[in-house]
Structure formats: C-alpha cells, structure tokens
Specification:
- It is a single chain.
- The chain is of the alpha/beta class.
- It has eleven helices and seven strands.
Length: about 260
Amino acid sequence: MVDHTQALSFGAAAAEYDRFRPHYPEPALRWALEGLAGSSDSHSGPTPPRRPVRVVDLGAGTGILTRGVLALGHEVVPVEPDPGMRAQLDASTPGTTALPGSAEAVPLPDGAADAVLVGQAYHWFDRDRAHAEIARLLRPGGTFAPVWNTRDDRVGWVAELGRIAHMGGTAGNVIEKYTDFGPEFEPIEVGEFSQRTTLTPEDVVALIRTRSYWLTAPADERQKVERELRELLATHPDLAGRETVELPYRTIVLRARRR
C-alpha cells in the first residue's frame, strides 16, 4: 500500500531536497538510455547523440534527474504531482516546465516517449496501474528505467546512519523487491554504479531533513533522530573531528524494454 502522506511530503522541503540530494551519475543515465535511437552507448565522453531521445521523467521531484538527462542532449518532459516540487523544478531548471500528473495518470498522448525514467520515486507508485500507463506512453521498443541512489550500507557508519534515520531502500532491497514490470515489458536488466558526495556534518543533518520519515514524524521523533545523528557524526571514529565526510552511494538502475 502506497503511503500518500509520505509520498507527498517532500514539497515542504523542496529547496533543501534540491540542494542536498545527490545527482545521478552520468554513466548510469547513459546506461538507462543505451540502445535507443539517437542515444550514445558510451559511458563517457563528449560525443552528442545523433537525435535527441524524448524522455518522460516520471515523479520528477525538483528536477535532479531531469537536469542530468538534459545535460546528455536529450529532450525531457518532467511530470510531478507535488506543486511545491514542481515550483522548485521550474526555478532550478531554466527552460523547463513540469507537468502536473502522477505515474498512474500522465497528461501525455499514447506513444509520446522513447523512454520513461524515474528517479527515487518508483517505490511510491501504484505499480499495476503505473505499469499500464507507462506502457501506454512508450513507443514499441522504448525503455522504462527506475533509478535509485542508495546509500552504501556496506560502510559501517553509513549503515548506522540508515538505522538512526529509519532509511530503507538499500541496493539489495531494490534488486530483490522489483523483479518485473508486468507483461508488457521484457525482463529487467540491472545496472549498478557508484559515486560519493562530499558533505559537512551539518549538510548530513540537512539531508536527513529531506527524508519522508523525518518530514512526517512528530516533533519529539525528529529531535531524537537529530540528536542521535549528531552524536554519530561527533563520535564515530571515521567521522569525529572531520570538517567534511564522504557519503558513498550505490546507484541502481532497473531497465526493461516495452514489448
């Protein structure tokens, strides 16, 4: 069951979300779009696409994924249900206007997209309804690819961070949980990429304040999370006394073709 209270909680922290959430690595986005007419199969380099791919960024949030795909030279249509997130996307992504809509009801015609990408939002979808809607949007042979930046909880302090802040969505959980996109899609392929973000201890606290658990928690629970988090940052041997920390991520891409 989708928790709509949590799913639509991010607008209250849209500016902080846009500032502190990590970007999506270029190689991950290139891999998500690999093989489509006009896309470049190279994971690096300046070669532009022969023809821009038309991408729908579903659950686009503040436009972090949208901007990554635009930087590859493609056309992007962001769709986002939360008005606060749409406003931030429009402000931080010049020349782009997000459409109001959800994964279950997208205001675009049949076959409008070469690819549908989803950054950090697929777990909020009503999946059966969303799969049918995404299949409607895609041209035959088009790609559906949800993407997640998951903290690398193989690192001790990162696992402790996740426990304190009640953060799920580890790489292993994502891969194990989502095994197919329904009968209109080919089997899922899995890509994994890595990156690190450099944050101050205060940035780490600000990052946690963009999480749905913190945004919807009562005041006393928020205080408890922040207190334990500050203690971790101040006392853990890998963190204590450091002006900045490197937060490692595993970026997971699940990719499938429309039949």
